[in-house]
Amino acid sequence: MIKSSSRIMIASIIVIVTISALYITFPESINAQLEGNIFATHTGGTISTTGVVIDPVYTTTTDPQYTEATVEFDPMEYLREFNYGTVSTLPDGTTLREFTIIAEDDQIMEVSPGIFFNVWTFNGTVPGPTIRATEGDIVRINFINNGAKSHTMHFHGIHPAEMDGVFEIVGPGGGQFTYEFEAGPVGVHPYHCHVMPLEEHIVRGLYGVFIVDPKESRPAADEMVMVLNGLDMDFDGENNFYAANTIPFYYQNNPIQINTDELIRIYVVNMVEFDPINNLHLHGNLYNYYPTGTSLVPSVYTDMITLSQTERGIIEFEYKYPGKYLFHAHKVEFSEKGWVGIFQVNNNSQDKKSAENVDYGS
Amino acid sequence: MEVSDKKQSKGKLIASGIIPFAFLVVLVVYIFGPGSDVLDLGVPLPEITMEKIDFVDSEIQVTVRNTGPIPVEIVMADINDRIQPAAVEPDGLLERYETALVRIPFAWNDAEPYRIGLTIEDGTRFEKEIEAAAPALQPSLELVGFFALIGTYVGIIPVMIGLLWLPFIKRISKQKYHFFLALTVGLLLFLAIDSIEEALDVSEENLAASFNGVLLVATVIVLSFLGLYYAGEKLVKRAVASTASSRISKPVAIALMISIGIGLHNFGEGLAIGAAVGLGSIAFSTFLIVGFALHNTTEGIAIAAPMSRGKGVVGKAMILKLAALGLIAGSPAIFGAWIGGFVYSPFTSVIFLAVGAGAIFQVIVVIMKWIRSEGDKNFSSAAVVAGLAAGMLVMYLTSILV
Question: Which residues on B lie below 8 Å from A240 (Cβ)?
Answer without folding.
Answer: 119, 123, 125
